[in-house]
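Q: Predict the assembly, please.
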Amino acid sequence: MATAAAQRTAGTQPDGDGVPDTADTADTAAYQRAFDAAVAADERVEPRDWMPDAYRATLVRQIAQHAHSEIIGMQPEANWITRAPSLRRKAILMAKVQDEAGHGLYLYSAAETLGTGRDELLDKLHSGRQKYSSIFNYPTLTWADVGAIGWLVDGAAITNQVPLCRCSYGPYARAMVRICKEESFHQRQGYESLLALSKGTPEQHAMAQDAVDRWWWPSLMMFGPPDDESQHSAQSMEWKIKRHSNDELRQRFVDICVPQAESLGLTLPDPDLRWNEERGHYDFGVIDWTEFRDVLKGNGPCNEQRITQRRRAHDEGAWVREAAAAYAAKHTGTAGAAGHKTHETGAARA
Amino acid sequence: MTATGPATVPATAALALGDDALVLSHRLGEWAGHAPVLEEEVALANIALDLLGQARVLLSLAGDEDELAYLREERAFRNLQLVEQPNGDFAHTIARQLYFSTYQLLLHTELAAGNGPFAPLAAKAVKEIAYHRDHAEQWTLRLGDGTEDSHERMRRASEALWRFTGEMFQPVEGLDADWAGMEERWLESVRDVLTRATLTVPEGPRTGAWSAGAGRQGLHTEPFGRMLAEMQHLHRSHPGASW
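A: Predicted assembly structure:
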């Protein structure tokens, strides 16, 4: 539902394209005041409401990057589908990778409410103009990595994403509610899979420890640069897109993980990790921000491989998408056996 | 299972049906992250999961699902050669799905209607298979009646896999079905879809000395061994471990 304040602004824009029709600065100022008031009152901004251009651009960037991360994030886990060691684990992994494709679809839809298109966003991903989460540029070298990703990477994602369920932009917030439910399930399964390894044979235990050793620091990097270097944070928090700073969320994650690692019977690879009575939090070591920046720049272990596979899937699938479009054009508006309908009901038969 | 407990389930039949589902599920799982459009990532994974679910129930009737999946060698698998065929391009995957799901739907409808030991699980699987069959039909129409390129690819795929379709109607020990009647209905159904997709029914042989019922006897095609090597290597590397 559109908010009261936003409805007032939308009421002056019957075309609902979210862009003021004139450059009238008095109108723009009034829209801005109504928008600010709605955000301040914790009301949701909806697609037909007026919003500042920069707010729109920030959301497109963030939601697209989030969608891209779901899609690229399928690769490291899909890498183990054909080798999963039991049929039960194989079914769980397949369901998870399928959910990720579904999350990508929700998120592209949410981004589309802001006036962009999935094709355009995919094009930006493929050409490197939009990013995806740096974590997916690390390789899955053993089966235990699948469990470590579930526990740590999904755990970090949830810590980041639960506050987004209250994000000021309605479609994004609603997508996150659905996504977080499924992610929590995956995270529990990842933890359970690591637990089975940790309590298994000595070889399995070693495999689990090695995976945690490799995924711990990259997971901490998922919260982004430290607060004093995060260029978008202040504005995003003001707009209530973001509710907590990178460092706050990172600390929350560490505090959650330490006791979980203990109950898993695994250690975290940080000699500086210890409880700080005074702060009521765990202190932890310094993150290697050089590595973080390197991976972001495209020089991580799998950047090239990930984007090449994504481009190849897209390019090799072009003929399939063209076939579907050609078929739809031929059969639009007919009560054909396929029952396929498109919005271009007026289009002539080819 | 009801009065007719698992003990009365013919193991040969459970293995044949279970291996079909297991192997095709594995092939579809290979598409993850490679599909032509995101919706197909979801659809192919969905079908793969349905099939894996069916496989787990069926293999469990014959023994321990993981022992059967991971510790048998190629010659002990009883799946059709059709389902072990490599994915090829999207048209090959769709042709394989069309041929198999049409067969599977006919067989399970018959099993569900009877009162044999497979009736309850067939009744559940029929709902999934009807969806798989619809998905394959819709894509066969789109590829066959899409562009010139897609038409040609769909034609090649439907012809390339045709020779593996005869073995589906070799009677399976322990399965009470009207095999000849099913084969007729299968031909009719596939002809109908291919015709509507502006394709013709392939003319090549559907059985040969080697392919007739070969998979059901543990005689497989070469790519199958490599598929099993990948599927089984981790499980075999840790004997006795649980996961």
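Residues 220 and 250 of chain A are 6 Å apart (CA to CA). Chain A has a mean pLDDT of 90.
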